[in-house]
Amino acid sequence: MLCRSTPGSAIGVRVTEPAGRQPVAVHAPDVARGLAARFQLTALLTRHSERPLWALFMFLNGFVTIALLAAVAMATRTPFVFPSLGPTAFLFFVTPRAPAATPRHTIYGHAIGILCGYGALWLFGLQHAPPAMTTGVSMARVGAAALSLASTGALMVLFNAAHPPAGATTLIISLGIVTRPFHLLVIEIAVAILTLQAIVINRLAGIDYPLWALPDNAPRA
Predict the structure, then answer these.
(1) How many domains are contained in the chain?
(2) Rounded Cα gap, residues 58 and 90, in angstroms
(3) Which pick of 18, 27, 118, 140 has the fewest CB atoms within 10 Å?
(4) Does some domain include residue 20?
(5) Boundaries of domain holding 39
């Protein structure tokens, strides 16, 4: 079987694949490397394998990020922390050069998910209904969940704002977990706070992370 390999890029390295298949991209730990250089810890990268250090960076950053938002949620009794923040944080700090990880895609994607989720609730008359985990899944809930996810995906494509974690955000709403309009606003504020943290950390690491969107000629992950 013929095989081919392609050289590494600024974004990651390429793994050898059988001829005729697209090479698999393995993203490089650019953020962890940049922070190590910033704080003069590059000696660690020469003594130890990069992957455990990269994993440690992701562990610490993920812990601090979600702990801070969870503390705000506890103090304000509002949903400042919710499941889809997790994959958004992973995109920010593992694949920061990907279009889906830009502030524009993140803010727009979650906003679309929120609007579609609440719109589906309203259409099926479920805006004041208990969560599906409490009452079970009715036909109206099936319709709301399906419509929310389908419309979120379609609108993200239409507005060129693909951000996969937003698919979880819209289901959180259409399944009745978070439904109060004020709490939906809090969700978007939490996304904005996490995005600001991504801008600070990625730029501190020397990553050319955009303040809003990638320029048209920027390399894509």
Answers:
(1) 2
(2) 8
(3) 18
(4) yes
(5) 34-204
pLDDT of residue 33: 62
Tell me how far apart the alpha carbons of residues 128 and 118 are, in angstroms, rounded to a whole number: 11
Give me 138's structure tokens.
């009715």
Percent of the chain surpassing pLDDT 90: 62
Please indicate, yes or no, if residue 215 is contained in any of the structural domains.
no
Q: In this structure, are 102 and 21 located in the same domain? A: no
CB proximity list for 37: less than 8 A, separation 6 or greater: 206
The verdict on 21 and 106 lying in the same domain is: no
d(CA 68, CA 4): 46
CA distance 175 to 171: 6
Residue 204 pLDDT more than 90?
no
Tell me the whole-structure pTM to 2 decimals. 0.80
Task: State in Å, rounded, how far the first CA of the chain is from the last one.
Answer: 28
Is 8 in the same domain as 76? no
Contact 77, 164 (CB under 8 A): no
